[in-house]
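Example 3.2
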Amino acid sequence: MTLQQMKYALVIADSGSMNEAAKRLYISQPSLSGAVKELEGELNFSIFLRSNRGIVITPEGEEFLTYARQVVEQYELLNAKFIEKSTKKKFSVSMQHYSFAVSAFIEVVRQFGMDAFEFAVHETRTSEVIENVKNFKSEIGVLYVNDFNEKVLRKLIHENSLDFHQLFTCDTFVYISDKHPLAERKEISIEELEEYPCLAFDQGKDSSFYLAEEQLSTYDYKQIIKANDRATMLNLMVGLNAFTLCSGIISEDLNGVGYRAVPLKESQKMRIGYINRRGAKLSSIAQQYIEELAKYESYAYNKDQK
């Protein structure tokens, strides 16, 4: 098994087809197929099932690709540090879809500048936030726990040799367009939302209720639409009078001013914090990022403070 074969397999998985992967790798499809067949022969199982519609990853292939991605990313880190000898320090953060976490990241970039640092930000699914920190792709991961998901998430975090650090708590808000029929309400109940589509971030194959980014993930909504980015969510809010449930800490600079966060009557507490690798010493830039995140505690609305 070679590093190149692992890279080939990862590109195929990301591309979804042999043709597209061969184009990205600038090699012929027969050469790519031959390299993967040789690898599968050595592993004694198929990574991909091939059809006229493209490729499907087998269960054994999913497990192999998880480990292969770690190996390739670690190699790239070693290569950058000791072979290419990059003088730039790196900082990467992964997060659930929080505009305030992106705003904190922007502030850190402004403070440290791009000359001496190489930055990366990944706004992604809950499971990938955990995976990215576990696999050294990100130094910090931003997510939340509540009474419903805490036991499962903390177990998952612990099993991946990570620690969760709480920053602040907040209540649940209904996030809607300012043109929504309920936009002028001081409080909205879940029952009043039944005739409107609920928006939730797609968690992919890891679509457990415990990994949902929204509160009340087990509620039986009459209408629900899955999306995978904030921009699409905002468009759906305007076009369909749809809503999502959130922390209420909104960045107007990023999301725009045409939206409102209204307290949910059946609010649940969200405990927002960050994860990092257990025992790892945080870099100075990571510490500054955490300080920027902590500033949003003053924006967090709690009913018990009314």
